């Protein structure tokens, strides 16, 4: 019965609106006029029964029914014309009494999009207007003189009540998104209409809430876009997790046969079970050993990277002698630098002290930075390790006189499987995982990563870590992971070099 009544009200309002607009040169009908005519029609509906019945009793059915119905219709039309004319003449006389220049030309809200409502402090609708009021009022269940909360979906009524309370407590403007129930659902219509209600408080002289002016806008398009973005984000997250699990599984499965290849290669090189017949066999076994070691290094890096990405990389914090650790890394890479004709040196100040960090991860950071510097520096160049302590932070930097990085390539630094060289003319080997792993391990320690470079002159990479390990503990508390960590977008760069401004403060999770 409630739905039938709502449907009848909507149909009657639509007919009255078209009738009034047709007889007013296309001017939109006032909502108050439509409501008044509807109430008049409902009030005079008994006359359409009583008058034909009375004339039928006096004159008979053949004569009484037409006369009674015609008389009831005439009375209804006269009353409707008198009602509309009286309201319009009263409005014009009120406008004429205004001083010159202050006369209102139509409803100012007629030119504003959406539906404009005026609510009293209790949330009861006192007036409605706006450019799109016909569209909104066509499905609202007669909002005038009724609490607006009745139009709101049950799940969103608390949000509307809270917004109204904020206005009562002193807020000037409150914006909230609501769902409105449709009384009649069409074939191509949803059950709810998503709207944004922008409510502004109207204050009395004593500061209390006198009324609320609310603008209602349809945000169905925005909600569709929001849902599409949410779906895409979920799909991207799922694909990201699948990729991480795949990398971890493949890396883990490859390490066992690679260790076997390396072990048997060492046995063959040592000639423990018999001499190799010639130097070519020895050369081939040595190549197998070198290739297996390189592949195992790549697999281990991929596994570490997937652990960081999945938030399962475990840091074993300990007190590390920083100078001794850096010197150890220098010795490990000294032969490689010497073979290539480079000068590898370190400039470590006295009293550098210790640091609370994962010793293995710290050495991995330095070794990767040194390996990159040696790889991209030609014979006759130099690679230098520096360290400086400032307060609760120590900065380790690795500089080289290598090929450098072009400014337009700075944004690519640190992405997995990415090198700054063109894939068609690469002169340097590598998987492009070194700096990605360095940035991930730095982020796990709560540190920052910075790189500066000039093409043809060299590159400086700086890693700053908290001395007391507080950054790693903070990362553990947040349980956040962002991998691969990204450098900030390159700012003002020139043709001679590039610099990634600011620090890379990626967050990571420690399992």
Automatic annotation (TrEMBL):
Residues 249-469 form the Histidine kinase domain. The keyword Membrane applies. Pfam families: HATPase_c (PF02518), HisKA (PF00512). One of its GO terms (molecular function) is kinase activity. Residues 492-511 are annotated as: Disordered. Keywords: Kinase, Membrane, Phosphoprotein, Plasmid, Transferase, Transmembrane, Transmembrane helix, Two-component regulatory system. It catalyses: ATP + protein L-histidine = ADP + protein N-phospho-L-histidine. The chain crosses the membrane at residues 40-59. The keyword Magnesium does not apply. Its EC number is 2.7.13.3. Residues 502-511 have a biased composition (Basic and acidic residues). This is histidine kinase. It comes from Peteryoungia algae.
């Amino acid at each position: 019965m409630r739905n039938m009544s709502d449907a009848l009200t909507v149909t009657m309002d639509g007919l009255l609106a078209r009738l009034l607009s047709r007889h007013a040169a296309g001017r939109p009908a006032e909502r108050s006029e439509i409501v008044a005519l509807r109430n008049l029609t409902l009030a005079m509906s008994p006359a359409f029964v009583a008058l034909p019945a009375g004339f039928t009793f006096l004159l008979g059915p053949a004569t009484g029914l037409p006369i009674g119905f015609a008389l009831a219709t005439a009375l209804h039309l006269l009353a409707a014309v008198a009602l509309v004319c009286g309201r319009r003449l009263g409005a014009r006389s009120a406008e004429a009494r205004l001083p010159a220049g202050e006369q209102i030309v139509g409803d100012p809200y007629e030119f504003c999009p959406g539906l404009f409502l005026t609510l009293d402090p209790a949330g009861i609708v006192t007036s409605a207007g706006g450019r799109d009021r016909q569209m909104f009022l066509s499905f609202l269940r007669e909002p005038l003189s009724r609490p607006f909360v009745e139009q709101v979906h049950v799940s969103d009524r608390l949000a509307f009540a809270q917004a109204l309370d904020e206005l009562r407590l002193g807020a000037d403007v409150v914006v909230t998104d609501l769902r409105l129930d449709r009384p009649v659902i069409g074939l191509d219509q949803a059950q709810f209409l998503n709207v944004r209600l922008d409510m502004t408080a109207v204050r009395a002289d004593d500061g209390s809430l006198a009324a609320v002016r609310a603008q209602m806008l349809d945000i169905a398009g925005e909600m569709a876009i929001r849902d599409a973005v949410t779906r895409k984000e979920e799909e991207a997250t799922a694909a990201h997790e699948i990729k991480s699990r795949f990398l971890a599984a493949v890396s883990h499965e490859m390490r066992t046969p690679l260790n076997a290849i390396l072990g048997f290669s060492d046995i063959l090189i040592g000639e423990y079970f018999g001499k190799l017949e010639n130097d070519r066999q020895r050369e081939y076994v040595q190549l197998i050993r070198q290739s297996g070691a390189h592949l195992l290094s790549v697999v281990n890096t991929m596994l570490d990277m997937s652990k960081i990405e999945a938030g399962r990389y475990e840091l074993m914090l300990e007190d590390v002698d920083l100078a001794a650790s850096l010197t150890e890394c220098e010795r490990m890479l000294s032969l490689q630098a010497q073979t290539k004709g480079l000068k590898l040196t370190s400039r470590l100040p006295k009293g550098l002290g210790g640091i609370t960090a994962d010793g293995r991860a710290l050495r991995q950071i330095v070794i990767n930075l040194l390996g990159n510097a040696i790889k991209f520096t030609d014979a006759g160049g130099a690679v230098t390790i520096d360290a400086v302590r400032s307060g609760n932070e120590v900065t380790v930097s690795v500089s080289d006189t290598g090929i450098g990085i072009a400014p337009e390539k700075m944004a690519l630094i640190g992405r997995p499987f990415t090198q700054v060289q063109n894939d068609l003319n690469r002169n340097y080997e590598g998987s492009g995982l070194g700096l990605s792993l360095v940035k991930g391990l730095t982020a796990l320690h709560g540190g920052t990563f910075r790189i500066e470079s000039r093409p043809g002159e060299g590159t400086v990479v700086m890693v700053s870590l908290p001395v007391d390990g507080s950054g790693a503990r903070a990362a553990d508390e947040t349980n956040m992971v962002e991998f691969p960590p990204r450098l900030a977008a390159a700012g003002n760069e020139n043709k001679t070099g590039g610099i990634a401004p600011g620090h890379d403060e990626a967050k990571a999770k420690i399992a």
